[in-house]
Design brief:
single chain; elongated
Length: 71
């Protein structure tokens, strides 16, 4: 059986993960510039979110290298 400390630690970890997920969804929505609604963003699977973030990172790197605007 777990004690109160274990439960508190688990709740804290869940809170941190929840915050990270909210920030990830916000980042995806910002970069999608309206082409993906908030509701649609929340329905993405973990793999889909990972793929989109990878694409965003690739585009950001290309933008930094070329100096062209991010589009």
């Amino acid at each position: 059986m777990t004690d109160g400390g274990d439960i508190a630690e688990l709740l804290h970890e869940m809170h941190v993960e929840q915050r990270e997920l909210r920030m990830l969804i916000a980042q995806i929505m910002w970069h999608m510039r309206g082409s993906l609604s908030r509701q649609e963003a929340w329905t993405l699977s973990a793999e889909e979110r990972k793929d989109i973030i990878r694409l965003i990172d690739e585009r950001r790197e290309a933008t930094e290298k070329t100096g062209l605007p991010l589009m």
